[in-house]
Amino acid sequence: MAATEAGAEAGASAPETPDEATTPPVSRSTDRSRVLRDRLVPALPSDRLWGWIGSLLVTAFGGYLRFDRLRVPRTLIFDETYYAKDAWSYLQYGVEIQTFAAKKEIGRAHV
Question: What is the pTM of this model?
Fold first, then answer.
């Protein structure tokens, strides 16, 4: 009986096909990660032209929405002047400083 078991084990370890002889054994976790990657990351579309055309159309439409009415309103709004002065003070001094115009606007808000 021991000889029969030894012969069965020897037969089981030998590769059955030439592909099995050349491929290294794959662990179970590697096989699971490969299956998971195949499920979560689909293959890229084979038609590259439509991929580029679609991306460019979406970009052009977004650019149109962004720049269409950029000149409306034609006057300066409060935040365009106020926050620009704050940004300048941050760049020059590293902190926010109170300018005369800012104090004047703050004073009007409290009155």
Answer: 0.36
Number of domains in the chain: 1
Query: Which domain range does residue 85 map to?
Result: 72-111
C-alpha–C-alpha distance, residues 86 and 79, integer Å: 10
54 belongs to a structural domain: no
Has residue 27 been placed in a domain?
Answer: no
If you search the block for the tokens 């962004």, which residue do you land on?
66
- Which among 99, 67, 70 has a CA at the least distance from the CA of 83? 99
Task: Answer with the residue of higher pLDDT: 22 or 94.
Answer: 94
Residue 17 lies in a domain: no
pLDDT, tens digit, for every residue of 42-68? 777 678 888 899 999 999 999 999 999
